[in-house]
Amino acid sequence: MALPQPLRTSVSPQELELIASEQLVEILPLITMEKTAFISGAYGPLRPPAKCRIPLWMAVNLKVKKKCHIIPPDWLNVEFLQERLSRETSYPEFSQMPFRFAEIAKAILDAAPDDVQNAEKVRSLLKDLREARQAKSREGLAKLDHSELSLPNLCSMEINELRPFFIHAMGVLTQLSREEQNGAAEEP
Amino acid sequence: MDTDDPDFFSRLARGDGNTFEDLLRNAPRDDDGNPAQPRDVPFYVEEEPETPLQQLIRRWVNERHSPDVLPTEEDLLSRLLDHIRSQSETVQLLRSDPSSSEEEHFRIMFVQTEVERVKFIVRSYLRTRLFKIEKHARYIMTNPDVQQRLSQSEVDHARRFARLTDQHFYNTVLQSLPESQQTLDDRILFVPSMITEPDKTRAVFVRARQNCPPVRLPDGTALEMQKGHISLTPYWVVEELVARGEVELV
C-alpha cells in the first residue's frame, strides 16, 4: 500500500525528529571544511576554534564521529528548565517553549550528553516538564467541544501524542451535535 | 519630578543615569511572577524566507494531516529533484577523484546524507498523496475540481485505479447480482454514499504562520488567529487558510 497503516493518521516521532533536525545549532568544529553548498543552503566554512552554525543532523553526525562539540541552545540547561518547570507547576497555562524542543533536546542528549552540562539533571527536568504539561493537556480535554480548542504554546511532540485521542473525541462530538441539530429540526 | 528645573531637559538629553526614568529602566526586573509580562525569549526569530526544502517539508506535513488532497506542487518538486540530481552528480564526480582528502570525504558524506534525507521527504510526500488518491479514486474521477489539484500522472493513476477496482468488483461479485443492483454509485436516502469522500469534518491541529483573517466556526462564532496560535478545529474551517499558506497543519 502507498502508506503504511500507522502513518495514515499521524506522524511518527522519528519523522518529527527528521523535521526538527533541519534547524540550525551552533557547534565547535574539530575538523576543517570549506564552505559547501547543500540543498537547504550553504554551510561552513568550518575552522576549528571558530564556532559555526549548521543543521542539527549534520552536527549529530559529526559528533558521533567525534569531530565537533555541540553547543546546546540557550534553553537546554538546568537553570532555564528549572525556571520553566516551576512556572509550569504554578500557573494554569502552558509556558512557552520552542516548538520542537522535545525533538531537539532528545537528539542532542542522545548524541552529545558530554556537551550538555549536568546532562542527567537536564534529562530528569525535561521528563518532569513533560509530565506537568501532559497533566495540563488532560485537563484541557474537558474544554473540548465540536468547534474549536485553542492550545497556546503546545509543542509539536505533545500535539503528536494528543492527536489520535483528541481528533477522535472531536469527531464524536461533531457527530453528536449534528444529530442534535437534526433531532431539533425534526421535532416541530 | 520638577520639570521647572532648568537642568531637567539638558540632563534628559545627556541621558545621565540619574533621572527617575533611567533608574526605572535600569532597575532589575521583579521576578515575582507577573504572567502578563513574561520575560520570554522570543523563539520565532527566524523571519527569513523559506528555502525550497522548508516549503516542501511544510507541504508534506500539511498533506499528511489534511483529509483531502491538496494542490500539487509540481514546480517546487521538479526544482528540488533537479537539485538532488545535480548534487548526486557532484558527489559522483568527487568520488571518482582518487586524490580526495579526508576533508573532501566529510563533504561528500554530508552531501550524500542530505540527498537521502530529501529523497525520503519527497517519497513520503508522494506516497501520502497516492494513498489519498487511491482511497478516493472514484470521487476524484467524478469531480473535475479535484482533478485540477492533481498532476497529470496522478490523474492518470486515479483513472486506472478506479477502473481496475470497478472491474474487479464486477468480476467477483456484481456480475452475478440483478442488474438494478450492479451500480457502484447509488445514492440512497439515509445511507452513506457509496463513493468514499474525504471527511472534511475531521479535526486537525493548525498553527498560524501569520495573523489570519477571521474564520467562522461550526458553533457560529468567529476565530481570528494570531501568529503562532495553535488550535484544534475541523478541517473545513481552516481549509482556505491552508490553501493560502497562512496556516500550517502540525
Describe the structure.
The complex is a heterodimer of chains A (188) and B (250). Helix content of chain A is 50%, strand content 12%. Chain A has 188 residues and is mainly α. Chain A has one domain: Ribosomal Protein L9, domain 1. In chain A, the strands form two sheets. Chain A has a three-stranded antiparallel sheet. In chain A, helix 2 (56-64) runs parallel beside helix 4 and helix 3 packs parallel to helix 5 (119-140). The mean pLDDT of chain A is 88. Chain B is mainly α and 250 residues long. Chain B has two domains: 50-175, Methane Monooxygenase Hydroxylase, Chain G, domain 1, CATH 1.20.58; 200-250, Ribosomal Protein L9, domain 1 (3-Layer(aba) Sandwich), CATH 3.40.5. Chain B has nine helices and five strands; from the N terminus they run H-H-H-H-H-H-H-H-E-E-E-E-H-E. Chain B has helices at 7-14, 20-26, 52-65, 74-95, 102-135, 137-141, 144-148, 152-172, 235-243, and strands at 203-208, 215-216, 222-223, 230-234, 247-249. In chain B, helix 3 packs across helix 4, helix 3 (52-65) packs parallel to helix 5 (102-135) and helix 4 (74-95) runs antiparallel to helix 5. Residues 8-24 and 29-42 of chain B have low confidence and may be disordered. Strand 6 of chain A pairs antiparallel with strand 4 of chain B, so a sheet runs across the interface.
List the main descriptive attributes of the protein structure presented here.
heterodimer; A: mainly alpha; Ribosomal Protein L9, domain 1; 3-stranded antiparallel β-sheet; 6 helices; B: 250 residues; mainly alpha; Methane Monooxygenase Hydroxylase, Chain G, domain 1; 2 domains; two-stranded antiparallel sheet; 5 strands; 50% helix; flat; DNA replication (chain B); GINS_bundle-like_dom_sf (chain B); GINS_Sld5 (chain B); Sld5_GINS_A (chain B); DNA replication complex GINS protein SLD5 (chain B)
